[in-house]
Design goal:
heterodimer; A: globular; B: 406 residues; 4-stranded mixed sheet; two-stranded antiparallel sheet; 6 strands
Chain lengths: 203, 406
């Protein structure tokens, strides 16, 4: 299986998606996620990828938006339960292994945030794929010949692996838009696919 | 091919020194933490010995900083903290920690602001008023009144209340106004340096009316104490020195210009032949000041008898309840940690791919999803369609308006 260093920007999108990552039974977030596709996603944890998150990413509290329990039309911020995902084996924590990784991390931290720089350094040094939507990080990755996967590509991969229906894909995309405020940019290669999935579903 | 800038040991050393001091750590402690001698650590701070990557990571963790904060490109801003920290050491121990943390945050916000300006090549335009010397035997209150009137005229404000004071001082004067929680007894602080200009930190815990007053109080310090950083209390003990009395009176006069207040007061009395507590509440709402400040201003201008406010206070008057009873609408006032211009620069830098999403969230002092929300809000314009509907439109920041329209 391909190893992937997951940046916070992609991680929150996957958490917001609802079914792509499914936390452990002990996670309080579990109760918030229940859709038709959830059982199928669980049977394919990680959808064919080993997802790694560096300690610099887990050190930050990440949030996604979720419907308010008292008023479902309102969205409120809720912390992402990363430990639940880790305990369920869906995400694997990782840290620097050698001086070369630390050196590249420090150099990249002059250009990016700590979490982004850590993902970049680990992915580059270990020959992993970098999961990011950030345009700055992608530009540096291109310069460093580092393979990148984006949120739309991850969703596509999940859809292929799980043979998700059009409705299920559209539900995931809507969740990402609504709960993580993410939509690919209009000039990105996946934009047309993203929009078509949503418009197909609306018909 | 990935081209990376080398980290300048001198700049890194300065940042390490600033972070260490802000954390209250000695050079000896830092050296022990690294497992090196004190002279070796001092050489790192002086930039004479380049810190190894693992040493940078260790020190960042020890000083409670991100590595990216320490190694970012560009010269660090002048350390605003030494004098403020010296003042902070004199406050009561219970408040000291919060205050020292806020002083450190002021430094970081100032540094972030300057970095955003450099990234976007958009230096702040200063439009500071001339300095005023407080000579002995001068009537400070009278001088403050005159300077406030002059300052209003310079800024083209006339006699009207200033609803969006923070925005005015940031955009038109070039002040850097930040909000941050401070111990309740402290109103705000002021610091100034040649490379960053005037920075003001206002106690975010205080109500909007109080924050406005503190802003102007600190602005008063810019006029009379331009190069003297200081921390201001809500009610300083003992007789106030002349500079404090000036700053206080300047704030009062700027927010409630004497001529305007007199005119408004007489208009009310002319109609009702009276001036009641409800009128006082409405007037304070009009000038966007606390009821107490309005009452004291009316007393000072001899429009109501001295001691009126004391009587009102004795009767357990509740201004918020009074405002609700009188149906006075709440003023719109942002309590963002940073200036509006700072926010726009951060969003603009992100849209131009000059900073990453994590950096954006750091600049905006929030998590990535909240940062996305802020970007979306900044880039969404609203307009009214011909049939009266409000329509939201995503603005394209990078679209040029210089070419021919298509």
């Amino acid at each position: 299986m391909q190893d992937v260093a997951l940046e916070a920007c992609c991680l929150i999108n996957l958490c917001a998606a609802g079914v792509i990552l499914r936390p452990s039974a002990s996670s309080p977030a579990k109760a918030r996620r229940s859709t038709k596709a959830s059982a199928r996603a669980t049977s394919h944890p990680g959808f064919g990828l080993n997802l790694h998150i560096p300690s610099r990413v887990t050190a930050e509290t990440l949030y996604i938006m979720q419907p308010d329990e008292e008023d479902q039309t309102k969205l409120v911020k809720q912390p992402v339960d990363l430990q639940g995902y880790i305990a369920a084996g869906l995400l694997a924590p990782c840290d620097f292994q050698d001086e070369a990784e630390i050196e590249l991390f420090v150099q990249m931290a002059a250009q990016l945030g700590d979490g982004e720089a850590a993902c970049f350094a680990i992915a580059k040094q270990r020959g992993w794929v970098l999961a990011t939507d950030d345009r700055c990080a992608r530009r540096f990755a291109a310069d460093a010949a580092l393979a990148v996967i984006t949120t739309p590509e991850l969703v596509k991969l999940w859809a292929e692996t799980t043979q998700a229906s059009d409705e299920e894909i559209a539900a995931v995309l809507r969740n990402i838009q609504r709960f993580a405020y993410f939509t690919p940019r209009a000039n990105s290669p996946e934009y047309a696919w993203w929009i078509s999935c949503l418009s197909e579903d609306a018909k | 091919m990935l081209q990376l800038e080398t980290i300048d040991p001198r700049i890194l050393g300065q940042r390490l020194a600033e972070a260490r001091k802000a954390r209250g750590v000695t050079q000896e402690d830092a050296a022990n933490h690294l497992g090196c001698s004190r002279p070796t650590y001092i050489a790192i701070e002086k930039g004479e010995r380049a810190a190894k990557p693992e040493e940078i990571v260790k020190l960042a963790t020890y000083f409670g900083r991100r590595v990216s904060e320490l190694v970012r490109p560009g010269e660090p801003v002048v350390d605003l903290q030494p004098h403020l920290r010296a003042v902070a050491e004199r406050v009561k121990p219970a408040d000291q920690r919060e205050l020292i943390a806020a002083i450190g945050e002021l430094q970081r916000l100032a540094a972030d602001y300057r970095q955003l300006e450099q990234t976007m090549n958009a230096p702040l335009r200063y439009n500071y008023p001339p300095e005023v010397n407080l000579e002995t035997r001068i009537d400070v209150a009278e001088l403050a009144e005159a300077v406030a009137t002059q300052e209003r005229r310079r800024l083209g404000l006339g006699e009207q209340p200033v609803e969006e004071l923070r925005r005015l001082l940031e955009w038109d004067v070039g002040l850097r106004i930040f909000y941050w929680p401070l111990p309740s007894a402290i109103a705000g602080m002021y610091a100034s340096a040649a490379d960053i200009g005037c920075c003001i930190l206002i106690n975010r815990k205080h109500p909007a009316e109080r924050r406005r007053f503190t802003m102007l109080h600190e602005y008063g310090h810019l006029i009379v104490d331009r190069y003297k950083p200081g921390i201001d209390y809500l009610s300083p003990s003992g007789r106030k020195p002349a500079n404090e009395r000036f700053a206080e009176a300047f704030g009062v006069s700027f927010l409630m210009p004497a001529a305007s207040v007199r005119q408004r007061f007489h208009e009310i009395v002319a109609v009702s032949n009276d001036f009641q507590v409800a009128d006082l509440c409405r007037l304070s709402h009009y000038y966007f000041v606390a009821v107490e400040a309005m009452a004291l201003r009316l007393e000072q201008l001899q429009l109501i008898p001295k001691g009126s406010w004391a009587l009102i206070k004795e009767s357990k008057f509740a201004p918020r309840q009074a405002a609700a009873l009188l149906d006075l609408p709440a003023h719109e006032e942002t309590a963002d940690y940073y200036p509006e211009r700072y926010k726009f620069l951060a969003v603009h830098a992100f849209e131009h791919e000059k900073i990453s999403e994590e950096q954006l969230a750091h600049f905006l002092r929030c998590d990535p999803v909240s940062a996305r929300g802020i970007v979306r809000e900044c880039l969404t314009g609203r307009f009214i369609t011909d049939d009266g509907r409000v329509q939201a439109v995503q603005l394209e920041f990078q679209r040029s308006l210089m070419g021919s329209p298509s």
